[in-house]
Design goal:
The protein is mostly beta strands and 227 residues long. It has one domain (28-226). The protein contains one helix and 13 strands; from the N terminus they run αβββββββββββββ. Residues 27-203 form the Outer membrane protein beta-barrel domain. It holds the Pfam family OMP_b-brl_2. InterPro entries: Beta-barrel_OMP_2.
Length: 227
């Protein structure tokens, strides 16, 4: 028992030393990894093209956060990621004599259960970032806006109907390079996210009845950020 006061004094000294030696990281960075899910909408569509069903996108990646002011609430983000994007619609993609052909679904194709194409992309996001964070505050408001450049690595098209089934891949009529503007905004972990494509999903060789299919992607969803 005679050593108890000494032990108590030692414990207080260690506690005070630990608190005094706590160093706040004034070189902190934010939001290095992201994951998001989106609802994919086709925009700039011709009159005969329509979407049917729920079209989804899944996105994962890493962004290097690079603050450029003393408070570190402004930064540039540059990253890399992967995504898959499906679009359920009535554009029929078929293959004939090693050439891909495009048409709209009609009465010759009976009872269509599924008709979608999917793109698999490597994404390169570039963002201008503003937030209200500090080195010790992990819940904050943020607005990130910028561009996303994507490279198409693979694509598929699937059709399921009563009298016709098609499974195609590596369709060379897709644009290899796709790009658009992005916006993420919100508070805390989950944030609203939007992407609007500035160029067409297909190249300029795709047409139906001499009408160019210059469709673009609009993606609305939620994005999850972690350090």
């Amino acid at each position: 028992m005679r050593y108890l006061p000494l032990f108590f004094m030692f414990f207080l000294f260690q506690s005070n030393y630990g608190q005094d030696s706590l160093v706040v990281d004034d070189r902190y960075r934010e939001d290095q990894f992201y994951a998001s899910i989106t609802y994919n909408i086709l925009s700039n569509v011709p009159d005969d093209l329509s979407q049917d069903g729920f079209s989804t996108g899944f996105h994962l990646g890493f962004i290097r956060d690079m603050p450029f002011n003393a408070r570190r609430n402004w930064s540039v983000g540059l990253g890399i990621g992967v995504s898959s994007n499906s679009y359920n619609q009535n554009l029929i993609i078929s293959e004939n004599a090693n050439e891909f052909q495009f048409s709209f679904s009609d009465e010759t194709i009976e009872n269509i259960q599924k008709n979608k194409f999917t793109t698999y992309l490597i994404d390169f996001p570039l963002e201008l970032r503003w937030r209200t964070s500090t080195a010790t505050d992990y819940k904050f408001w943020r607005i990130y806006t910028g561009f996303k450049f994507s490279y198409l690595v693979y694509n598929t098209s699937k059709l399921r109907s009563s009298n016709l089934d098609n499974d195609l891949s590596s369709i060379d009529n897709f644009n290899d390079f796709q790009y658009g503007i992005t916006l993420s905004a919100g508070y805390g972990t989950w944030n609203f996210n939007v992407y609007y494509g500035l160029n067409s999903i297909f190249d300029n060789t795709v047409s139906v009845d001499n009408q160019s299919i210059d469709i673009k992607a609009l993606k609305l969803g939620l994005i999850f950020y972690i350090l």
